[in-house]
Amino acid sequence: GDAIVMEEFANFFSLFHWFQLRPGPPPAIYWGLAGLYVLALGASTAYYFNIQQRFAGHLFRVAVARRVGLGAGIASALGLIFVALRFWEVPYLSLRLWVYIITIVAVGLGGFLAYYFLRMYPAALQAFDERILKQRYIPKPKAKPAAGTRRRKKGR
């Protein structure tokens, strides 16, 4: 048991392992990875289609939520596609490299989103709300008369 795990771990760092055209059937961990991608795809799809009800009337939150939902949906859909191609053993498209890359991208996206929502989002949201508040209370300029019309002088 332990010898097989060590051999698999050593193979992980071999370029032949990553670029093998017909890598054979995937290990059992790919079922778990496929399940995670299915859950992520379902959650991001539900989130994307419920944005308007959740953040109705707040343009900044809707824009950020659309980007997050779409990005997570694309990453999870690509991950699911590459895991499925790995199960179907399609030449060139079933390379382990594609599954590794999209998994690294998905984990990186999750890390960036955690950083963004903890560090950057509160300040950006506050700045947006302050800008909207200023625009609401700045007096609007008076409408100018249409071109070609003259204003009458008083007393005529």
In short:
The chain has 156 residues and is mostly helical. Helices cover 73% and strands 0% of the residues.
How are the secondary structure elements laid out?
Blueprint: H1 2-12, H2 15-19, H3 29-49, H4 51-55, H5 59-88, H6 96-137
Helix pairs in contact: 3-5, 5-6
What does this structure look like?
The termini are far apart. Helices cover 73% and strands 0% of the residues. The model has no long low-confidence stretch (mean pLDDT 88). The protein has 156 residues and is mainly alpha-helical.
Which short descriptors sum up this protein?
156 residues, 73% helix, mainly alpha, 0% strand
Largest sheet: none
Proportion in β-strands: under 5%
Helical run tally: 6
List segments where confidence is low: pLDDT < 50 over at least 5 consecutive residues: none
Give the C-alpha Rg.
27 Å
Dominant shape: elongated
Number of strands: 0
SS class: mainly alpha
What percentage of residues falls in helices of 4 or more residues? over 70%
Give the overall pLDDT as a whole number: 88
Name the helix and strand elements from N-terminus to C-terminus, one letter apiece. Answer: HHHHHH
Counting copies of identical and different chains, the oligomeric state is single chain
| N-to-C CA distance | 104 Å
